[in-house]
Amino acid sequence: MTQIKGGYSSALDFIMRRELFGVKLGLENITKFLGKIGHPHNLFPSVHIAGTNGKGSCAAYIESILRQAGYRTGIFTSPHLVDYRERIRVNGRHIEKKFIIDFVGKYRGLISRNRITFFETCTALAFCYFAHKKVDIAVVETGLGGRLDATNALRPVLSIITDISFDHTNVLGDTLRKIAFEKAGIVKDGIPALVGVVKREPRAEIARACRRRKAPIFYLNHADFGRDGRPFRFDYDHNGLNIRRLEPSLHGNHQITNAALAVRAAQILSLSGFPVRKKHIREGLNKTVWPGRFQTITAAGKPTVILDVGHNPAGIKAMVDCFKELYPGRKADIVIGFVRNKDLRKSVGHIRPLVRRVEVVRLNTHRTAEPEEVASFFGKRTPLSISSSVAESSRKLVDSADPDDIIIVCGSHFAVGDFLANQRKIL
Questions:
Q1: Least reliable range by pLDDT among 37-41, 339-343, 359-363, 391-395
Q2: What integer pLDDT is reported at residue 3 of this predicted model?
Q3: Which DSSP state fits 21?
Q4: In the β-sheet with 355-361, what is the strand arrangement from edge to edge?
Q5: Computed from CA positions of residues 144, 165, 48, 26, in that sequence, does the dihedral angle turn out positive or negative?
Q6: Which end of the chain is more exposed for a tag (fewer CB within 10 A), N or C?
Q7: Residues of the chain with CATH 3.90.190.20
């Protein structure tokens, strides 16, 4: 590969500017492009994960379990929080800047001529990197939906659908059945599918897709796991695998479900050529690193800060439920910002009971929801300010808070990412 003039910043700018071409759902473009660059997606085994919420956490858990078992792992997730390279990792390490430079240098013309979109470029870059690094297995999260998502060019060893709820309804459909149909598009002929969905209508739609494709279907049932009395610790017992007192690194009852789904996936993968042992499962769950998922930051003399990327009603509710369990009866100061096309009223309705005061922010993206619209759902009795900066709002709340106060930064990956990028200035 040939380096391009300007180095990493120039290469990254080229990739980011592909966003101008928007989202192009469909596999024709990415399939042709992957064919022209050597079919890298066919050079490594993979686990493919779709779902409204939980797919990133589930991916992180599975990758960690497999890495603890000694496999050379790749993982592709989106979006990133601070550093673009978070999206693509091998054995826990970010993709090298040089590989990005070389990839853009070699394929820049091809990408431009074929109007390859931002996410298609990211997907191809990840697949090329995993092939180059000769990973034993890669864990790949869909970007949007599943059926027409660029990652669906893969033929994985296992497909997983974590959860179905309302999000991106303008693209995926306005009913759970329609959304499930899109997510179930990742199911491949004869390839096992694992389903964490519990609601009857979307679960039935996924089952229909599996029958059409003669794909063996496995379910995570709530009888397979249960809390053992301590917050966010659980026991797992299914089909001969019994593990007690599992302690995932991520907090929340929803994370117990995601972790249990990862354990079930490990069971299936063990029968598909990727055996793992109990200790790998235990260590993998305990050592999973996945920032922005009820991430708690404490510093001497400072208030507790919680960062959570929940960005739709289901995600916000999961965060609120976790807060209530860890801090019963407490309220928090909130920094919140959403992107457009979310159910703002319902999301705000979930978080409003926790609010002592709130800073509604304009996010640093063209996709930001208008702060005035978000603010309108909090009501006139809520102490509220509007700001154009996550860092400014967070610093203001930190400076005026007592050490035992709690501040939550939430609503989107952009809000959490902005906080993390400015953490030293804020705290």
A1: 339-343
A2: 45
A3: G
A4: 295-297, 304-308, 406-410, 332-336, 355-361, 384-387
A5: negative
A6: N
A7: 295-426
Residue 38 token pair: 């050597």
Side-chain half-sphere CA neighbours of 374 within 13 A:
32
pTM of the full predicted structure? Answer: 0.94
Strands 193-195 vs 88-90: parallel, antiparallel or unpaired: unpaired
Task: Report the CATH fold assignment for 7-286.
Answer: UDP-N-acetylmuramoyl-L-alanine:D-glutamate ligase (3.40.1190)
- In contact, 342 and 167? CB cutoff 8 Å: yes
Q: How far is CA 258 from the centre of its chain?
A: 12
Where does the chain hold its CATH 3.40.1190.10 domain(s)?
Answer: 7-286
8 A C-beta contact, residue 277 and residue 69: yes
CA distances from 10 to 4, 5, 18, 355, 393 (A): 8, 7, 13, 42, 31
Q: Above 80 in pLDDT, residue 99? A: yes
Tokens of 142: 């869909």
Question: Is 3.90.190.20 the CATH classification of the domain at 295-426?
Answer: yes
